[in-house]
Amino acid sequence: MYVCVCNAVTDRAILKAIDAGAHSLDSLVDELAVTTACGSCEQAVRDHLASRLAALGHADWLEPAMA
User: Fold this and answer.
1) Residue 34 backbone class (left: φ over 0; alpha: ψ -120 to 50; beta: rest)
2) Closest to 63 in 3D by CA, of 29, 16, 20
3) Which helix (H) or strand (E) holds 2?
4) Which pTM value belongs to this model?
5) 22-29: long-range contacts (C-beta < 8 A, 24 or more apart)?
6) CB under 8 Å to 35, separation ≥6 — which residues?
7) Apex CA 11: angle with CA 17 and CA 36, to 5°?
């Protein structure tokens, strides 16, 4: 499913990037360019990041605004 329609980024691409070490919104922006056009996907990207880090047992890595 597309999360960032503007840059054609899927949920799978986001999860793959997180698994490869992109453990912050900034790193996902740098790697995938999510949120850089209209920004409407930001909350969905944050939700995917929080969910995946929690599943990996790294919820403590979340930025304070996301916890």
Assistant:
1) beta
2) 29
3) strand 2-4
4) 0.87
5) 23/49, 23/53, 23/58, 23/61, 24/49, 24/61, 24/63, 25/49, 25/63, 25/66
6) 4, 25, 29, 41, 42, 45
7) 75
Domains in the chain: ranges and CATH: 2-61 (1.10.10.1100)
CA distance 65 to 37: 22
Q: Identity (one letter) of the amino acid at 64? A: P
Q: Mind listing the pLDDT tens digit for each residue in 15-61?
A: 999 999 999 999 999 999 999 999 999 999 999 999 999 998 887 87
Distance CA 13, CA 1 (A): 10
Only one residue has tokens 């986001």, namely: 14
For range 1-25, the mean pLDDT: 96
